[in-house]
Structures are given as C-alpha cells and as structure tokens.
Recover the amino acids of this structure.
C-alpha cells in the first residue's frame, strides 16, 4: 500500500482478518550499506532499523506472521550485493519465503544467479519461490517448476498470470507439491487481453474456483490487488474490503485457507 508504513500495514491486515502478510523489500540506493526500502512506504527497512523494529513489534502484538517478502528480480544484473540486504531485512522479521521474478534471457547466467540466491536465502532461513509471469523469462508454471526442482526452491502461482497462460487446472495440479502459497485476485473483463488489470476477487472473469481447486486444501492464500483510493476508502477499509471479497470467493469454491495480505499497489 503506497504511503503506508509496513508496521501500519501489518496492523491493518490483522484488523481486517488476515493471518499473515507479505512485504515488498526492494534494494534502494543505499543497498550497499545494508539498507532496504519498503516498496509500500519508501522508508528504511534494514535489519535492526527503526521501521524494522516497529514492524517486528506489530507482527508480535497482532499475532500476524510475515509469510513472504518480494523485491528480487533476476534480470542478469542483480547479484548478491543487491539481494543480501533484502534477505537480511526479511530474516529479521521472520520471513519464510522470497518471491522471485526472472527476466534474464540467458539460461546459463539465470541458473547461476538462481543457485546462488537459493544458497544465500537458505542461509537466512528463507526459501525462494519463483513466480511465473507473462513477459518474463519464465512465463509458465511448468518452466517455473522445472527450475524449482533443479535448484531446490518453490513456486508461487498467481491467478492473473495463470489466467493469461490459459493453463488447465489439471496442468497446474501436477506441480502442487512445489507450491508454497497461491496469490489471488480477479481479472477485469477488458478487451486488452494480456493487459487486463487485477481487480478484487469476484469482480472479474477468472475462474477462481478452478484455480484454487488445483491445490491442497488450507494452502495459504495471499491477495494482490491494486488499492483503490477514495474519500471513504483508506488503507484500513481497503484491507477489510479485500479480505471480505477474497474470503467470499474461496468459500464459494468450498475451500478453506490461511489468509494473508500482500502489498496492494
């Protein structure tokens, strides 16, 4: 949520009913000195820093877990100097997984960087999860699963990217053992096709039930939708809206899940 400090995002998520959160931690201009900036709030988030301590206290006080951190893009230029501060900041808050997007077209370099990232992440108690995405070097779940099996990491299916890939439920179910959680939204019924934006679950055209039924029951479900601002929709009310819409969609599919919020942008 742009403009919302991570510790406040944790509080909003807890009050809305979420069990866990995800935070975007991106290497900032000060990454070489170990500083990491929260993509949600443009504030310093290095391990042990002021906002890190505030966020840690908020997690404990509200009984919320930090399930996932994101912000590492393997584009052929990102190396340990960039991802280590992200891992350090996430580990200080108890993060379990790191979402990774891969755009590097060079397969050999991509494999080298992914192997090094997995090694460093596991040294911090964190497991990388590859998110297949349209227009990336890993657009399909099958390709993400192949990399995950080779380099001992996980995958993170996202409903929007799944919808774009036109994969069947049977196809994605084949890789369920590698799935750490699933990312939920809906797809707006626009003519743009691949450019269709994310909307609240239930407000679009995606088959949410078919997507979720491909995975084990009670798998953690995170929610990633853009924050629609209005005079009556502050960050707290938007978190409640996102939770209610997502829960309704999952219950309509006859499923149960642990609930998490991720950054709304």
């Amino acid at each position: 949520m742009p403009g919302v400090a991570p510790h406040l995002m944790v509080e909003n998520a807890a009050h809305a009913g979420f069990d866990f959160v995800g935070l975007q931690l991106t290497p900032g201009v000060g990454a070489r000195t170990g500083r990491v900036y929260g993509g949600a709030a443009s504030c310093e988030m290095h391990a042990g820093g002021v906002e890190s301590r505030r966020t840690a206290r908020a997690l404990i006080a509200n009984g919320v877990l930090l399930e996932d951190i994101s912000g590492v893009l393997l584009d052929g230029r990102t190396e340990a100097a960039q991802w280590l501060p992200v891992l350090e900041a996430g580990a200080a808050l108890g993060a379990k997984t790191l979402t990774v997007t891969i755009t590097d077209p060079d397969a050999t370099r991509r494999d080298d960087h992914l192997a090094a990232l997995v090694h460093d992440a596991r040294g911090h108690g964190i497991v990388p999860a590859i998110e297949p995405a349209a227009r990336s070097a890993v657009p399909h779940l099958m390709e993400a699963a192949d990399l995950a099996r080779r380099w001992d990491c996980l995958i993170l299916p996202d409903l929007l990217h799944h919808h774009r890939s036109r994969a069947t439920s049977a196809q994605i179910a084949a890789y369920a053992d590698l799935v750490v959680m699933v990312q939920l939204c809906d797809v707006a019924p626009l003519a743009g096709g691949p450019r269709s934006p994310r909307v609240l679950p239930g407000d679009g055209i995606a088959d949410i039930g078919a997507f979720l039924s491909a995975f084990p029951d009670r798998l953690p479900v995170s929610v990633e939708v853009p924050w629609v601002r209005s005079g009556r929709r502050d960050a707290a009310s938007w978190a409640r809206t996102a939770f209610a819409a997502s829960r309704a969609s999952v219950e309509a599919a006859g499923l149960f899940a642990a609930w998490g919020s991720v950054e709304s942008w």
User: Anything to note?
Assistant: The chain has a mean pLDDT of 84. The domain at 69-261 is CATH 3.20.20.150 (TIM Barrel).
